[in-house]
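Hey, resending since the last one bounced:
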Amino acid sequence: MITVFTAFHEQLQVFLRKDLRGAMLSKSLEHRTTVKDIIESFGVPHTEVDIITLNGRSCDFSCHIEDGDRICVYPFLENLVIPGAQHLQERILPRAQFVADVHLGKMAGKMRILGFDVSYRNDYSDEELADINRIEGRVLLTRDRYLLMHNSVRYGYLVKSSDHLEQVAEVIRRYRLLDELKPFTRCASCNGELHGVTKAEIDAELEPKTRLYFQRFARCAGCGKIFWEGSHFPRLIELIRRLSETCAS
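The structure tokens again:
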């Protein structure tokens, strides 16, 4: 039997049972295990952890624990400085590509409007989401913390808010994406890229009033849908303005 002691930064304590918050936690085990297993046994996904110290020294998730070990666990924080610490989460993504779970359909659509590459279907299984994360290197966005505990999940973020606009702002702030917004370059429905087309190319597909009042068009390379600056356009401009203000604050 071995006993280890674990302390979680206050921002990670939202994952703990209320009776476990605010204290150094002890856990007794019959065999050695990894730091990752200890952390996730308390309900904290490894994707939410940026720095770990084991007996005062920086370590990663694969470190094995010994009797009496003390583990301190920290989230991703902009201003957190621990000399010599190893960061376990990406500050800036190698590619800003995402896959979203079934609970985040509205958020996925808004992110696509902003130009982000977001794979989404309302029938993805947990196994499919984990596979897409592993094979394509997409950041897994989810409201399900247990999904992020899959061993194969490398990049992932637990979306906290239930409001879809704040959800978008969360992701943009977390991965520093405010300067990467490219509005109206992706299809909100299928995630395909939008390409400008001349009016003459699509004239036969336009309704009479659309043909009369609009001159600029784009077509989705994925589903073929045609886009123009209709009555919805001012609402989308206002959405982008609000999101930019929210993310910058």
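The chain is about 25% helix and 20% strand.

Sorry for the duplicate.
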